[in-house]
User: Which sequence fits this backbone?
């Protein structure tokens, strides 16, 4: 039963939708489908073997081995283990029915950005035209380390989720993964000039870079954006950036 439940849960998030993108990179989907299929097949095989053994009376059809009456060792054995072991099915049922959400503000708050002046330098030119759509990591890197100040006098558009700081400060935040959600690291940008939405809300913010501190210095992190427009959007199917 556990094999069937876990296999069905893995197939649900990988084969019948985009839920797997909350946990792993898109390229790992075929391996999830294969794993879920194998787990489900193993569960079905075990069920078939158990039914066959019960049909032959190997233990009794009720799952108990019966000894003759009057035998001093007469009793019941429980090859299936204690009944309380069925509680192990609860996490598998929960995974099947209620897949965990993508990582959000709680995880991001515990990920400190690592910064050093060794990363300071010039960056390649940005495409022409405003507003310019940028990934959060691209904006943060240029804002904190670009000695050429390529973000200056540009209108920018960023799409990410909301996290809160102290004193009413709020941030656009995105989690970056190399393989899966277990190795996620956070990138965040302070938003100025707009009311803070609820934490974990996904928004598109249009605005301009707010320079502060010299590139690579502690004052330059986290980068800041002066917002001119904030629009709430649904959570995207793939909530992470790939490192």
Assistant:
């Amino acid at each position: 039963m556990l094999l069937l439940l876990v296999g069905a849960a893995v197939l649900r998030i990988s084969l019948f939708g985009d839920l797997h993108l909350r946990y792993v990179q898109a390229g790992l989907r075929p391996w999830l489908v294969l794993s879920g299929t194998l787990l489900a097949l193993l569960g079905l095989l075990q069920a078939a073997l158990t039914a066959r053994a019960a049909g032959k009376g190997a233990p009794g059809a009720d799952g108990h081995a019966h000894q003759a009456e009057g035998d001093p060792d007469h009793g019941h054995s429980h090859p299936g283990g204690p009944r309380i072991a069925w509680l192990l099915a609860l996490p598998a049922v929960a995974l099947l029915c209620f897949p965990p959400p993508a990582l959000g503000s709680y995880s991001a708050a515990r990920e400190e950005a690592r910064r050093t002046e060794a990363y300071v330098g010039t960056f390649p030119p940005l495409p022409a035209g405003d507003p310019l759509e940028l990934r959060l990591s691209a904006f943060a890197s240029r804002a904190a380390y670009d000695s050429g100040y390529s973000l200056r006098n540009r209108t920018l558009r960023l799409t990410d989720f909301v996290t809160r700081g102290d004193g009413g400060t709020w941030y656009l935040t995105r989690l970056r993964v190399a393989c899966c959600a277990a190795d996620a690291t956070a990138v965040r940008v302070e938003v100025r000039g707009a009311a803070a939405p609820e934490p974990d809300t996904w928004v598109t913010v249009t605005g301009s870079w707010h320079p502060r501190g010299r590139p690579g210095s502690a004052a330059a992190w986290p980068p800041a954006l002066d917002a001119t427009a904030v629009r709430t959007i649904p959570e995207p199917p793939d909530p992470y950036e790939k490192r």
Remarks:
- The two ends are 37 Å apart (CA to CA).
